[in-house]
Design brief:
Number of domains: 1
Distance between the termini: 11 Å
Strand order of the largest sheet: 2-6-1-7-8
CATH topology: Rossmann fold
CATH class: Alpha Beta
Oligomer: single chain
Largest sheet: 5 strands, parallel
Structural class: alpha/beta
CATH architecture: 3-Layer(aba) Sandwich
Order of helices and strands: EHEHHEEEHHEHEHHEH
Strand content: 15-25%
Helix content: 40-55%
Number of helices: 9
Mean pLDDT: 91
Radius of gyration: 17 Å
Low-confidence stretches: none
CATH superfamily: P-loop containing nucleotide triphosphate hydrolases
Number of strands: 8
Length: about 230
């Protein structure tokens, strides 16, 4: 595969996008781009600044001067704000909920899109999120859409929250994820959907390694067809 290819991985929360994206990037020695981290960073910093996350005008003004340091490699996606690494802090459940709120705003989505495209300007990236193959990189050479049963996704998310205090119940997480799905699928700007030409993979009964291998097989098969 050429070094300038762009690979996208889309899907709802808990489908395995982040872990699969990182593993795939490592396998290919590509950069890993985590779009969700940028939405979380916007929400996290705006909240710290006392900005109402539902105030589109205030957020737009904030974004005009928000310039976090972003670095990406095959191992991960790193964010530095005001000289401090915040990659771990923005992974909290609260930051995720706030990110969901700001992600419906067109100016926030445009801000994130511009940064992702800049980072991918030389190709060789695996970009993960909810609109990577539809709105951010519609020309991507390889597109994947991961999905899983709601209960499975909720159980995975609950496991992710271990160590952050007592996590919500499985039922509460299922309700929250279902609400997030509805917001993502019905928002006016770049709604969550299967990108044209994407390979859909149901990860309900697949391990991370099995999912990665399916992605690699699709890439290898398409490369073979081209030669």
């Amino acid at each position: 595969m050429g070094p300038r290819s762009i690979i996208t991985i889309d899907g709802p929360a808990g489908a395995g996008k982040s872990t699969v994206g990182r593993r795939l990037a490592q396998s290919l020695q590509y950069l890993y781009l985590d779009s969700g981290a940028l939405y979380r960073a916007v929400a996290w910093q705006a909240h710290r600044a006392g900005i109402d996350l539902d105030n589109a005008r205030a957020l737009g003004e904030f974004l005009g001067s928000f310039r976090p340091e972003v670095t990406a490699d095959a191992r991960g996606f790193h964010l530095v704000i005001d000289g401090r690494e915040v990659t771990a802090e923005i992974r909290s459940a609260a930051a995720g909920r706030d990110a969901s709120r700001v992600a419906v705003l067109p100016q926030v989505r445009q801000w994130v899109k511009e940064r992702l495209r800049y980072l991918a300007r030389n190709g060789g990236v695996v970009a993960e999120g909810r609109d990577q193959g539809t709105a951010v990189f519609p020309e991507a050479r390889f597109k994947f859409y991961l999905d899983a049963a709601l209960a499975t996704r909720a159980a995975r998310r609950r496991q992710d929250w271990q160590g952050q205090g007592e996590p919500p119940s499985l039922g509460e997480i299922m309700a929250e994820i279902a609400a997030r799905d509805r917001r993502d699928e019905t928002r006016a700007e770049a709604p969550l959907r299967v990108p044209a030409g994407a390979s859909v993979i149901d990860t309900t009964n697949l391990s991370i390694e099995e999912t990665v291998q399916q992605c690699l097989a699709r890439i290898e098969n398409e490369e073979g067809d081209r030669h």
